Amino acid sequence: MKYDPLHHPYPSRRMTVYSRKGMVATSQPLAAQAGLRILQAGGNAADAAVATAACLTVTEPTSNGIGSDAFALIHSGGRLHGLNASGPAPQSLNAEEVRSTGRKEMPRFGPLPVTVPGAPAAWAAVSERFGRLPLQESLAPAIQYAEEGYPLSPVLARAWNAAYQRYRSLMRDEVFSSWFDTFAPDERPPRAGEIWRSPGHAATLASISETEADSFYRGELAEKIDAFSRRSGGYLFGDDLASYEPQWVDPIGVEYRGYNVWEIPPNGQGLIALLALNILGSDDFVAKEDTGTYHRQIEALKLAFSDGLHYITDPEYMRVRVEQLLSTQYAEQRRALIGDEALDPAPGEPPRGGTVYLAAADGDGNMVSFIQSNYMGFGSGLVVPETGISLQNRGHTFSLDPEHANYLEPGKRTYHTIIPGFLTRGDEPIGPFGVMGGFMQPQGHLQVLMNAVDFQLNPQAALDAPRWRWEEGRTVYVEPTFPHHTADALIRRGHDIKIAPNHGGFGRGQIIWKDAEGTLAGATEPRTDGNVAAW
Prior knowledge:
The protein is of the alpha+beta class. The protein has 2 domains: 262 residues, no CATH class; 220 residues, 4-Layer Sandwich (Glutamine Phosphoribosylpyrophosphate, subunit 1, domain 1). Helix content is 35%, strand content 19%. The chain is built from 18 helices and 21 strands. It has a 7-stranded antiparallel β-sheet. Strands 7-4-3-11-10-2-21 form a 7-stranded antiparallel β-sheet, covered by helices on one side. Strands 16-17-18 form a 3-stranded mixed β-sheet, covered by helices on one side. The two termini are 20 Å apart.
């Protein structure tokens, strides 16, 4: 793709970064530099992605950790590969057990929403299949930062403080004490510029690197997780860890304006972005800053989300096939529902038949879109003592309604919000993109892609553009920089537009796209501490 680097209609302190030999883009500068360090040491994009992902568990623990899940799209050897490293519910946990505690829905914190972590297995799998360097070398920068410490960046410090204030009031039980020991060792959160270190984190990463993650699932770390889970009244045990393996999957995609947009198949919510693009694919958009453009984007996204929340779960439990939902017939059926006024979305009937994101590319054409998350900030609030392992709360998205597709069952993988994206043109890779941030992610994918493909914005401008976020019903939040006259026009169409007080909650993304000559163009968000490291 060719861009005008000076075509930047939105105010930003950043410009698109260009390079040839390699590039890593993510939300934390030290992690991006760690990935670049691995590239310059002879590693490829896969090695750089693993190094950056592991480093992010140290340098941005407010969004992910060693106890996270992960997904990846990897272009190598002339084709695109998908990795689903999401973990299932423990075998000892079921909906009846949760309801017996008096709950009517899955809790956000504590042992009940903890699922099997997949991130360490993802690092080992990507390194083994596509990497050039041993896992020990790729994880070395993360281990160094955990041992020696690093100074907090501003956005990170703000998120850390917000989590501490929330956890201090909510987490008074003894099972949460290790979180405070690990992430607030001075009985307060670290501040911007202050050094935070985690020796337990370093030892855990070293063990993972030395054993190709086997210690996490079948060795000493698994034993520590099992023992802590039993002491804290949890359900995640050694057998759950020992039986876990990440899955290599075929990516799913749709054609949009001559490009192919790729996502990981369910249980991820990338399908929602594809459903919305399919609905919009036959429309002609006059201009980006047109009320009709925003209206149709919002309506298509609402319809896609209502389908996604209704149908997406572990693919073994899905009631319809992805092919049915992405059929031309179904897209036309859903498109016909969009009129001039805002609608209240409902799922259709198809024809039968707190996350971190990173992008990496090298000079040999390998490209990686990688995402991992604890789900809500630091996750469940449970940290395995003296290990730095913060356990995710991904199980919060399970339903306790037996009629719901995402009903909690032992060994079932839940609806997943984290989604890596990838863009190609025919068989030619353009590159990775992603927007982290819970249920904002498919909304961010839709908006960023349309900014670039429909309205020819360069990668940085595509990320910088003011965003909207559908919440529920007719409620849509817009960023403070969103054009107010457009917001007023959308209100007249029946949308309940609310102007957000700040830019939080609108996602944080990165892009690395390649042109026909092989030049890489990278960008990262002004909404985060992000950095594009290139050479």
